[in-house]
Structure formats: C-alpha cells, structure tokens
Structure prediction request, 221 residues.
Amino acid sequence: MIDYNIISTGSQGNAVVFNKHIMIDCGVSFKDLSPVYRNLKLILLTHIHSDHFNKPTIKRLAEERPCLRFACGRWLISPLVSLGVKKSNIDVLDFDLNYNYGICNVIPVRLFHNVPNMGFKIFFKNDKLFYATDTNSLSGIQAKGYDLYMVEANYEDSEIKERIAHKKEEGIYPYELNVLKNHLSKAKADEFIYANADMHSKYIYMHGHKEKGGNKHKNEI
Prediction:
C-alpha cells in the first residue's frame, strides 16, 4: 500500500508526502510541514514556481535537516544552492533514467509547462505511483497498471471556455488562456488514466483550478 499525505495541492501550494519519507514538491510553509519534516529522507522537486518551490521553506529545511536529499532537474541546482542546500545533497535527475534510492526507484518524465518541469514514476517495493502536475500534455508517456495515479485535472474544458468568452465580451483579459496553455484539463487527465489504469488502480485529481484554501488529505491505498 502507498501511504500518502497531501499537505496541499493547487495554486496556493503543493507538497505530497509518500510513505512518510518521500515528498514531491515543497511549495508550502515550513509550518505546514512541521508534522512531517523530521521523517523526510528525499524531496523530489518538479519546477521553480513558488507554489512548488517555496524558498523560505527550502532554506529552513536545509538548516534543520542538513543531510536531507533533494532530487531535481538541473534547472533547480543553482536555486537550491543559493538557499543553502549543499551540492553533495542534490541529485541531478535526467529524464527517463532509473534512480535507485533504496526506499524507492524514481524515473523522471518530461512535462510541458511554461518553465522546465518534470513528473515522476516512483516504484516502491510492491507498488507503483505516477505523479504529474503543471503540464499541458501527457502525450507519449506510458504508465501501465500503476497502483496510484496523481494527475493534474486543472479545469473542465466547457467551463473554462465559457469564462474566456464572458471575459472577452466584458473587455477583460482572460488569464484562463494561459491556463489552457500550461495546465492539464480533466478530459486529458481522464484520457491518460483510462489508457493506463487497470482494475486495481486508484487515481486522484490534483491541482484543480477552483481550489481555495488548503486541500489537505491523508489516506492510503
């Protein structure tokens, strides 16, 4: 079973803890991590946006947990070092390679956003996880028969198109146009899940456009 604790997901911040030791993204306050940070062994980071990469929190983690490992694309090396993370604690990940951490194996996948970004295939002893947010496409990625899919379902196509049309009529710039370019719709999320999941698979929609306040969940499958 994969134990997961969604500290937060959405534009207000992103951080999810798996099996108490692994966290994907660090876009929340240090206070939000106070119940979990002492048990963390590995933090996987996706991209530079502040709702995924909270600089004060990462700086505090580097101070409080000097042996904590950070794994990321090479675009995050300099930002991490500037926050006090030792280079020896940073693992630079390349797409589609398999990294063995003992507690899990990690394969990064390329995602398409307005900045460099990655998602993750994570293999625990008996379970497989696929995680992807902040992307406009999952085309070309396969993750067949995984136990848990955590995939961005940012908006409903019909709803966001209606908002865009309304704002254009009102002469207001529809920022939702950027959402269409940089985030995954529920329809695309469903298409990916249906193409890959099997009868035992579970899935969770992440990073919903309408979320307000903390979206906190704790569960296991």
Observations:
- The mean pLDDT is 92.
